[in-house]
Amino acid sequence: MTRVGASDDVPELARIGAAALRALLDAHDVSAVEVVEAHLRRIEARDAEVRAWAFLDPELALHQARTRDERAGSGAALDGVPVGFKDICDTADMPTAYGSPIYAGARPGRDAACVAATRASGGIVLGKTVTTEFAGRNPDKTSNPLDPSRTPGGSSSGSAAAVADMQCPLAIGSQTAGSTIRPAAYCGVHALKPTFAAISFAGMKNLCARLDTIGLMGRSIDDLALFRCGLLGAPFAPLRPAEDPLRLGLCRTPYWDRASPAVKERVEAAAAALATAGFAVEEVPYPAATPDPGALCWAVIEFEMARTLAAEYAARAASMSPWARRSVENGRAIAIETHHANLRALAACEKAFDDLFGDFDALITPAAGEEAPVGLSDTGPPTFNTPFHVAGLPAVSVPLSVAPAAMPIGLQVIGQRCSDGRLLEVARAIELALE
Is 200 designated active site? Predict the structure, then answer.
């Protein structure tokens, strides 16, 4: 489910998802220039309100498209498809500011691995999407395209908003606690948070290397599968139908009472509908022996922030947000022995969730505990993301259908470690059953 913001006046080629665009491009029914021009028109019409882009050079994007059309396409997975990149991804031909005034106008010397892989797969680097400061908790300018009074979530705010508003078909985000799955849920788009380290994070600004993970956003599960193939340098293979019956575990987590009534109702209704459709759906108890994932996650993040942002803090602390300065200072006060204990606790969480899966094909739980909150001063809590993220598990956000006037609600589908392709097949089967 992707809803169009404010206006329905969307260029036809901007309405089409990446997999469908790829088919049109491959058949020579459209050119890459036409595709890029359509998305640039949408950006021009809408971005004064949505503010999803940190950097955009229309002529550079069109130059890439013309070059692609002149060589008549490569047949690679992302050939001719425009992609937005969260502005923590280094780009050799565009500035990368990491959401911080410290790096305003900075020009990296090379592309991040995900940018290089996109180019190698024929994709067009459309521009840089807005991120929170250093992909942390301090919001930037982006609003939710479905309701500008609400947050799009963070830290991948611009990526989620741009895909939701049909300003680009695919975008890269990242997740350290909930920064891909939550904004996807708030904006009503699809997202994949892969197994930790399954896709290279090289060349992206680290907040917390132990937990930082790349994120993929698109308009459908098929789009995510195409995107994943491109980033892995693999030829695109359509997803296979998931065999029946699929066994799903409904994991409410200890934080179920923090979910809004609408989220509880919609997730429970989805579980009931899946059971009616022939899925084996069972309640799954949350692992009892694991530590509080939120406290553990932030302790690890703050320890690492004190190291990853040490140079910025030493030279330009006054240019950092109060949140970033405080986090660095908190991290400096954490002893290495405490951090090592926290790393052991992360390993225990990984084992506990591996054991929890058993014969389940996937777990389901809310992608966010609430609809996108009103106001742009906070990006919303990662309550339902953190437990599974610290366990290193892959997750997909599947938008659930809602009444036309309501904000999106997302279903988080969690797979076993290193089963990302299988997870996409299961997530598509779930979405088809809920249509």
Answer: no
8 Å CB contact between 147 and 407: yes
Whether 74 is a known active-site residue: answer no
Contact 3, 164 (CB under 8 A): yes
CATH code of 12-232, in short, is 3.90.1300.10
| 377 catalytic residue (yes or no) | no
Residue 248 near residue 361, CB atoms below 8 Å: yes
Query: CA 164, CA 186: separation in Å to the nearest integer?
Result: 10
Q: Which entry of 86, 128, 193, 205 is annotated as an active-site residue? A: 86
Residue type, 239: L
Task: Give the residue from 153, 133, 152 showing the smallest Cα distance to 144.
Answer: 152
The catalytic residue among 100, 121, 143, 155 is 155
Domain extent listing, the chain = 12-232, 247-285+357-434, 293-342
- Among 159, 179, 321, 327, the one annotated catalytic: 179
State pTM to two decimals: 0.96
pLDDT higher than threshold 90 for residue 56: yes
367 and 267 in contact (C-beta within 8 Å)? no
Given this model, what pLDDT does residue 277 score?
Answer: 96
